[in-house]
Amino acid sequence: MTMSTRTRIARLRTLALTGITTTGAAAVALTLMPANAQAAEAKVPAHSVVTASSKGSSVGKSTGNLDAWIKQSLQIMKAKGIPGSYEGLKRNIMRESGGNPSAQNNWDVNAKQGTPSKGLLQVIDPTFNAYHVAGTAKSVTDPVANITAAANYAAHRYGSIDNVHSAY
User: Fold this and answer.
1) Which residue, among 47, 56, 90, has the nearest Cα to 76 in the 3D structure?
2) Is the pTM of this model over 0.90?
3) Which phi and psi angles does 123 have, rounded to 5°?
4) Which of 18, 31, 69, 93 has its CA 20 to 30 A from that of 123?
5) Rounded to the nearest 5°, which phi and psi values hold at 108?
């Protein structure tokens, strides 16, 4: 092996180790994120959750977890003719908020303009107001109202929340 070949191999090893180190640092950063930014099934008090039926919704008891919120939203969506699946909703929720109904983005372009995105599916107030679904709470951070309004918006813009695979 010539000296230049050894030098190239050494440089490649250094680059590989740098890549591994960078990836490791990113993994550590994600691990050390505050709990509200991590993917988890969030819990909220039952009195703040909307329970849905095909005749509308009312404030009532709920298990207060992500699975229940998605299922309640799907009931409303079905009754209102809004397309979407459990898998599509959950995939987008986990990407957008990690399952935290209190998540708020204070750093993107919307936030800089004074309208931060909020809730499970990171909806800004004007979008929530325009796509709010009757029979759900009038609060962008209410889990069921947030999911249902976001799914309604996605249906109008993309055909379904199932067609959304990145920030929308």
Assistant:
1) 56
2) no
3) -105, 135
4) 31
5) -85, -175
